[in-house]
Design a protein that fits this description.
CATH class of the largest domain: Alpha Beta
CATH architecture of the largest domain: 3-Layer(bba) Sandwich
Number of domains: 3
Structural class: alpha/beta
Shape: globular
Distance between the termini: 60 Å
Strand content: 15-25%
């Protein structure tokens, strides 16, 4: 048996690069492992922003990154939900909130709600969501100290360049060896990387190479067996135009995702500006048309430069080949629609830490990593594809074509079972839990025909009391939560809120 891995070279750019090296340093820094960060040229501009799920906060806590520092340094705004408008034309907007997963063993509340609807209930599922109630009040759902099972979390909007710079500073303080000269050449032998020739002429050899370069997969794509699987059939947008608008007078606790004939426009409020992202299909609408309509749909003028980039959602067939592991967009390239970008990086890093190789010559851990990341990627694809496939924008070429596409079998299974009995069959490595899925499917127009028969074990009077009590609890708790402005003004961590 060979010796343990003694050196790792992480090649990439921006937040994925620095998150990976910080995680390695925190987890393995007390060993003799040498960690090299090879920094490629940044692709971020002054108008770029990261939209992140609540799991980013969990990762920050694990890595010892102070939340208040992130909020201040990155002009960050906490968000409780995403609001989707115009994906179904006449239908009202849908709020996908970051409610916490129900307690294990409990029937999902959507089951009780579905029976209530069958018996005449006319209150939408969003009214029972603490995160949605907070989003309507521009409030931030801080931790709750009660026993009624209601809880929600918050994600973030962050200035992308400032966030990457903050992570880089932390990595350097931790003693990571950084190389800022880029790559001149990569020596490859079959499924393995032999060495990297840096831009300054030096040669870097490592036992393990981590590819954090984004969709280009600068390392992994050179290896024998590398193959990228496109998701264009279900995620049809191939361009992204990033720009900025003025700061909103009142900072909301949500992202706004508005569909139009060629794609969608997202508004992501920050403390000093509003990031405006237009994601579209270049065959359906031109860049010039997008620039013109972005400000109109966003409802505010666009200032400064608008930066165009190419999108190509999909996944590597084998994200770990030989001695090279792809993370983030190099492994799974997602559509920007669900704020999954940094979550993909988080998931890959977590699985890499769990499967970090025991020896430097053979990597049997690759099989477990590949299986987990492919499962995660397929689940992420399905959630994002549901937005597009279930659209109800008729007589528009882009939306008609994706609606007519056959969904992946795993997604169709979710559609069918939820339609039949309000149950979402969950796989391993799901980015979103069942309640989030249920809100999406209901918002997209799937109405369950039935529900879990176990709900009938609850007397009708008890069920109605439970439904009514939940409405009261949600409203009472949401009113206790701080507004975004109040949350950002606090200098100390927020105390838990008492139960309603």
């Amino acid at each position: 048996m060979s010796g343990p891995v003694s050196s790792v070279a992480v090649v990439g750019r921006d937040a994925p690069l620095w998150l990976a090296v910080i995680a390695l340093k925190r987890a393995l820094g007390r060993t003799d492992l040498r960690i090299h960060a090879v920094e490629l040229r940044s692709r971020l501009t002054a108008v770029d922003a990261y939209a992140a799920m609540p799991t980013l906060g969990s990762m920050h806590r694990l890595l010892g990154i102070d939340e208040r520092l992130v909020l201040q340094a990155c002009n960050a705004v906490p968000v409780a939900a995403q609001r989707f408008s115009n994906w179904s034309r006449s239908a009202p907007p849908v709020l996908l909130a970051y409610d916490d997963e129900p307690r294990p063993g409990e029937l999902s509340f959507v089951q009780f709600w579905t029976k209530g609807v069958c018996n005449g209930l006319r209150v939408g599922i969003e009214e029972f969501s603490l995160g949605a109630a907070c989003a309507r009040l521009n409030a931030v759902p801080v931790p709750v100290d009660d026993d009624n099972g209601l809880a929600a979390s918050y994600g973030y909007h962050l200035d992308a360049s400032a966030y990457a710079a903050l992570l880089k500073q932390l990595a350097l303080r931790l003693g990571v060896e950084a190389h800022a000269f880029g790559i001149a050449d990569i020596e490859v032998a079959g499924p393995r990387i032999e060495a990297i020739k840096l831009g300054d002429g030096a040669s870097l050899e490592a036992d393990l190479y981590i590819d954090a370069s984004g969709r280009e997969a600068a390392l992994l794509s050179l290896l024998a067996g590398a193959e990228f699987e496109s998701w264009r059939e279900w995620l049809p947008c191939d361009r992204m135009l990033a720009a900025s608008g003025p700061r909103l007078v009142q900072l909301p606790s949500l992202s706004q995702i508005s569909a139009f004939r060629g794609g969608w426009i997202g508004q992501f409020p920050l403390q000093d500006r509003t990031a405006v992202t237009t994601v579209y299909n270049s065959a359906a609408v031109t860049e010039g048309e997008v620039v013109e309509m972005a400000g109109v749909i966003a409802g505010s003028p666009i200032s400064g430069d608008a930066v165009l980039s190419v999108l190509d959602p999909g996944m590597q067939r084998l994200p770990w080949i030989g001695n090279c592991v792809a993370i983030g967009g190099a492994a799974v390239a997602v559509d920007p629609v669900d704020a999954l970008d940094l979550h993909v990086t988080h998931a890959c890093i977590s699985h890499l830490m769990t499967s970090f190789p025991a020896c430097a010559d053979e990597f049997p851990e690759a099989d477990a990593y590949n299986a987990a990341i492919r499962c995660f990627g397929n689940n992420a694809r399905d959630f994002q594809a549901a937005h597009y496939i279930l659209n109800r924008r008729f007589d528009e070429t882009l939306w008609d074509a994706v609606r007519d596409a056959a969904p992946p079998p795993s997604l169709k299974r979710k559609f069918d079972l939820f339609s039949a009995r309000a149950v979402v069959p969950m796989n391993e490595e799901e980015p979103f839990h069942e309640q989030h899925w249920a809100t999406l499917l209901l918002g997209c127009g799937i109405v369950p025909e039935g529900y879990d028969p176990r709900v009938d074990a609850v007397p009708d009077e008890t069920l109605m009391r439970r439904v009514q009590q939940r409405l009261r609890d949600v409203a009472a708790l949401a009113r206790q939560m701080p507004t975004v402005e109040q949350f950002l003004a606090l200098e100390q961590p927020l105390p838990a809120v008492s139960g309603a």
